[in-house]
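Tip: read the tokens left to right.
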């Protein structure tokens, strides 16, 4: 019995030493119901924390001690809310919260000014905080499969945004500020209630190559009447031809022609 306890202690010590050395804590599929205290005690050592596919319900406020963390992956859990102290993770660049039970995001989300990728699909969100506009380095936002009825006007201040996914929601219209997203390449809004899009979208978003609006009450005729449609069409075809020339192997659905209405 004593030998077994000693081996377990050595194993735990070895694991903690490895985490501290590499900065990577990976505890996928570990049946965790609470955050392990030994991870929180690592403080500044943690760079990546992956707790995918566990049974976590809460994220402790003590997570604010992991101030050097750059990548936080909490997908496929039972999380219902996030602590306001999450905003203190100033080094965070990637946050994956897909497939949880989150109903709201704290305003302090806007304090994560280095965040580049935010994925919150498969939750119960009815809205996004206005403070999301403070995420000036955000390149990807995936808010699909929620209960969103609109996107905040402040989304137009996410100037680095290249990919916006909000499929499977209840969005009826886009804020006019989306036209400020001059780096936006892909806009996916399948299966919403979008009846029209901002009239200047194609003209102002000069990097846009792909728009997917399948399952919305908007017609192709409406889309083609938008100013800037011809330039958008040229970009779409150029991207499509490049994929063919590169022998890109993707599914027929993935090989999007650029407009799906």
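Filled-in amino acids:
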């Amino acid at each position: 019995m004593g030998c077994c306890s000693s081996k377990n202690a050595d194993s735990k010590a070895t694991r903690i030493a490895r985490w501290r050395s590499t900065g990577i804590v990976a505890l996928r599929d570990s049946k965790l119901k609470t955050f392990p205290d030994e991870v929180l005690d690592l403080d500044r050592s943690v760079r990546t924390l992956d707790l995918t596919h566990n049974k976590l319900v809460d994220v402790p406020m003590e997570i604010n001690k992991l101030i050097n963390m750059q990548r936080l992956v909490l997908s496929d859990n039972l999380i219902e809310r996030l602590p306001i102290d999450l905003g203190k993770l100033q080094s965070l660049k990637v946050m994956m919260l897909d497939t949880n039970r989150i109903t709201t995001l704290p305003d302090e989300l806007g304090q994560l000014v280095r965040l580049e990728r935010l994925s919150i699909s498969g939750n119960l969100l009815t809205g996004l905080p206005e403070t999301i506009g403070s995420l000036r380095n955000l390149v990807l936002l995936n808010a699909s499969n929620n209960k969103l009825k609109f996107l905040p006007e402040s989304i137009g201040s996410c100037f680095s945004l290249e990919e916006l996914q909000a499929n499977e929601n209840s969005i009826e219209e886009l804020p006019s500020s989306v036209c400020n997203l001059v780096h936006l390449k892909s806009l996916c809004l399948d299966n919403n209630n979008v009846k029209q899009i901002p009239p200047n979208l194609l003209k102002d978003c000069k990097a846009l190559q792909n728009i997917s609006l399948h399952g919305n009450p908007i017609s192709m005729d409406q889309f083609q009447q938008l100013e800037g449609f011809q330039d958008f069409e040229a970009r779409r075809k150029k991207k499509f031809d490049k994929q063919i020339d590169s022998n890109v192997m993707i599914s027929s659905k993935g090989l999007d022609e650029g407009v799906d209405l």
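Residues 249-258 have pLDDT under 50 and may be disordered. Residues 2-22 form the longest helix (21 residues).
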